[in-house]
Design a protein that fits this description.
Elements (H helix, E strand, L loop, with lengths): L4 E9 L2 H8 L10 H16 L5 E4 L8 H6 L3 E6 L2 H14 L5 E3 L12 E6 L10 H14 E10 L3 H7 L7 E5 L2 E11 L5 E11 L3 E12 L3 H10 L5 E4 L1 H4 L5 E4 L1
Parallel strand pairs: 1-10, 2-3, 2-5, 3-4, 5-6
Antiparallel strand pairs: 6-12, 7-8, 8-9, 9-10, 11-12
């Protein structure tokens, strides 16, 4: 019996830009069907945003999982992300799909836009939790509020850290996908600090077929913000209308905060 050959790449602890620059070309392997996820998430967020034609900033757009679908539905979306490699891929994906998606590499704590530029800002899929201190989170939220027009809304999502802070999970279930004739298995290991509110996560991705597999391990750190903590920081940033939506209410797989 011939055993498969496995090559392993280990990366050191990295900041969000380094992590997602390294991950940009493989990020779609997180999804069993990335295109289906793009379409499904676009329907979810379009229902929260309302009428198409609005100007939307996705300030943590990554490779475009939310922005691409919303642009296809007629929203005028601009995408920014701290990772230049991710926004470059989002731009390529938009061109391949024939949708308009202006992009820029930018830290959400210093957005390169004038005041009152957007009808809504999107910051979803746990992106804000890469900011590890309260002042940094407040700065990021103030920036989203600054670029919002009067009456505009921030739509933000994080993992269910209320539950995770109680149970302190050590791993995520493996996710399986197949693309370009290769299988991809993705999972994480979580290493909580002694205070139980931040954790290092090891992200493993195994890709390959019968005879040869490649495993890549990436490591970074997250702040497990509870809904109460995030609500307090949003209030400090100047948001006064806060509404939390459970996954059963929003259709998204994480708790969603709608703030205005």
């Amino acid at each position: 019996m011939r055993l498969p050959r496995v090559s392993v790449t280990l990366t050191p602890m990295s900041n969000p830009r380094e992590f997602y620059d390294d991950f940009a070309e493989a990020y779609d392997g997180m999804f069993a069907d990335w295109d289906a996820s793009i379409a499904r998430q676009a329907r979810v967020f379009a229902a929260l945003l309302g009428e198409a034609g609005q100007t939307i900033l996705d300030c943590s757009c990554g490779i475009g999982t939310q922005a691409l679908g919303l642009a296809a539905l007629g929203f005028h979306v601009t995408g920014t992300d701290i990772s230049p490699a991710s926004v470059a891929r989002a731009r390529r994906e938009a061109a391949a799909r024939g949708v308009a998606l202006p992009t820029a590499a930018a830290d959400m704590r210093a957005l390169p836009f004038l005041d009152d530029s957007f009808d809504a800002v999107l910051c979803v899929d746990n992106a804000l939790c890469h900011v590890l201190d309260a002042d940094g989170v407040v700065t990021a939220l103030r920036e989203t509020r600054r670029v919002l027009r009067g009456g505009g809304r921030l739509i933000l999502s994080v993992r269910d850290y209320d539950e995770a802070r109680r149970s302190r999970p050590r791993r995520t279930p493996p996710q399986l996908s197949r693309r370009d004739g290769q299988w991809c298995v993705t999972f994480q290991l979580w290493h909580w600090d002694r205070h139980g509110d931040r954790y290092d996560f090891e992200h493993f991705q195994l890709r390959g077929s019968r005879g040869e597999w490649r495993m890549r391990r990436r490591v970074s750190r997250l702040w497990a913000l509870t809904r109460e903590e995030l609500g307090e920081l949003a209030s400090r940033a100047g948001f006064s209308r806060l509404e939390w939506l459970a996954p059963a209410d929003s259709g998204f797989y994480q708790p969603v905060l709608v703030a205005g």
